[in-house]
């Protein structure tokens, strides 16, 4: 083992000029324009300083606590083990050869833990500081290198036996620790060990490829694991490896691969099948379909900060990189950090972790500090002002001694001491954020924040994985969270909430009254095992167990300025839709059916539900709200629910210890509101079975739960407002203002008017919705103020959406077309490739057309009405009656054009002209029929006949009628009518 150890050169770890080992690159894309020796040296110096700082900064009293902590961790984790055993650290078993019976997932996790502990030893050895008693400890170095060789030989080197359990440990976990150690211990390691270690890590870089595939050994941009935050981790490890082995092509390609994470995801132009990353509306997706800004997004932000540090001082640093991450900060992260608390709606399975939303944000602060050091000018000042604002939030508790980098600790404290940097929140407290591409909504107001978690066939209903977030079933079914100003948000949410809340009664959700079981309860393990398709981490496991999509396509929101309407239709998990093709023992669940809509204004959020039913007839519960308080907290519920009154029903939940937590509710329907005050007890391990030992806790909390109970065999609806920060008296004053009018709440449309703002919101669930002067022709969401509209396609698949508006309008602004017909305008809005972004348009009224002259038509109508049916043939009078009715309709239409009036008059005149008298009875002999009808004329025989007076236009009794002529006339009449009804011009 000791043959690996080279002579120790004092301070060698701080040197940046070693490049003695032969390069080894697997799968590098190109070797042209290789990074220069000078820039490789700069990148290496930057990386080492990021990991261990330097003597000057480490000896600063600011870093004393950190240095002491590093030394303590290194000393604690010194390897001292039985080489014939199966562990380096007690309890961290690496195989089952000595009587244990751990799963392969447990064994792979233990391998990752072992390398993490060893890295803490390497960090202590390499970090120069007078406060670090472990610095360059020769005995520790020998023990560490011995342990690394033992692990390499016994658990890593045979790559046909490795790669069991969780892929993460083999492709990211172990390489993160090992790659850094290769760099920090470079001068003490045999080059052959470095080379072998890198080749071994390459062999485990597989994605879904099987051994022998030529795609193994480098980043595979087509692999579902090599995306987003995971790709950032993998590429940073490969940069470390390239620096340790003087492999410039590896470093260059790793940087290029990392930068693919910076591209904005275009849903219409997916590259390499990758949907993980940031979207144009600020959304962030990881695991293909999970809203994940608050976990994997944080990781990617931090890794990007590291990349800017590595590239500092080189030509590889770019303004594009800095501009991209700057956009992430203000459009993706800041809106989700309510007063420094990362919201629950974007944390995936991390929602059940014991760290709070403040813990999440504290890690973001370090990333922001690191990014600010790469910026300059106004961008740097704005970011540093935001850092100072976040650090001023008492609950956030930013402790720079916990930062991973000593350089970041120094930079943070410099920002805090700089009098030229103000404490400024860059966002206003009066805004709506439409994260429609991850089915989330965030409303920010001066005294509260409100967040909605929706889902669809594009975004997962929840994420459960690896024993975390066990009871997550309804987190994407419209669950909402009310964050109130100036309070500790962990008093309302966080791990205590997840452990104690009834998971079937999350605020805003509608569920059938049926008990569900967790995955371990159903299948006896952390996943559904059914070989060969259902392996841990397989595509099928992801699709049906870990993060299932919904079956509903309707989920979105339309934003008009700082106001919005949002809507969704409940869907089932994908497994229910595919139940017939799944194994017989796979348990599927049928969800309730409901339309849900939210209208977000200033003082209130109006919540509507419609078409609530269950196709299986099960009773249902809709949770109005479910508020958590500390056990024994003095909370009062006031209401008029039990009083017989014609006034609006209302209720307040009032925290007598902290009035900022007060909430009022106004009810607009006759549904019975059920109020339950109870104490609930739970354990952290109830919602994440990975929490054990001292990390597990039993907590008891008090709840006020408001619900509607709904029968499943009939269709029902509901309508109420949430009015934050109101006690009973304040809510009475609010109700007296009569701000809200429910315009309609049916299966077709939910619509609300905010009277004081002059705003209307419409959620059209079908193409048949009609409210006041608006008729929908598409499924869409609309906000409206006067003639200003915001339109959104909640399905993200319609090329256009359309509606008809009473009145005559033209499109003054917006990507839309308007067609006027009479006194109605049909507006068609282009929504193709808009990716769920609200489309704003302004309509302008058209001048009323000049009133048509109806004098002639009126006279003809009067003439027609004076005629009697008995005087004419039934057919000719029927034609007159039809023309008369059409004429009366046009007379009554004030918007009828002159052309329409004229055409109608011509048709009526023709009908009058076409009236025929009934024929008289026959009286002559057969010979009379040969007499000609003439006056002073000769017959065909040239003989004079007597004159007879006849009525004009009518044949004399007994006159000869040319039947051929009549038949021809009939044909002409029919053809003339055909021409008339097909656009032919009538004669005057």
TrEMBL record:
Residues 940-952 have a biased composition (Basic residues). Pfam families: Lyase_8, Lyase_8_C, Lyase_8_N. Residues 105-388 form the Polysaccharide lyase 8 N-terminal alpha-helical domain. Residues 434-725 form the Polysaccharide lyase family 8 central domain. The keyword Lyase applies. InterPro entries: Chondroitin_lyas, Gal_mutarotase_sf_dom, GH-type_carb-bd, Lyase_8, Lyase_8-like_C, Lyase_8_alpha_N, Lyase_8_C, Lyase_8_central_dom. SUPFAM superfamilies: Chondroitin AC/alginate lyase, Galactose mutarotase-like, Hyaluronate lyase-like, C-terminal domain. Residues 1-21 form the signal peptide. The chain crosses the membrane at residues 960-981. Residues 741-801 form the Polysaccharide lyase family 8 C-terminal domain. GO terms for molecular function: lyase activity. Residues 919-956 are annotated as: Disordered. Keywords: Lyase, Membrane, Signal, Transmembrane, Transmembrane helix. The keyword Transmembrane applies. Belongs to the polysaccharide lyase 8 family. This is Polysaccharide lyase family 8 super-sandwich domain-containing protein. The lineage of its organism: Bacteria, Bacillati, Bacillota, Bacilli, Lactobacillales.
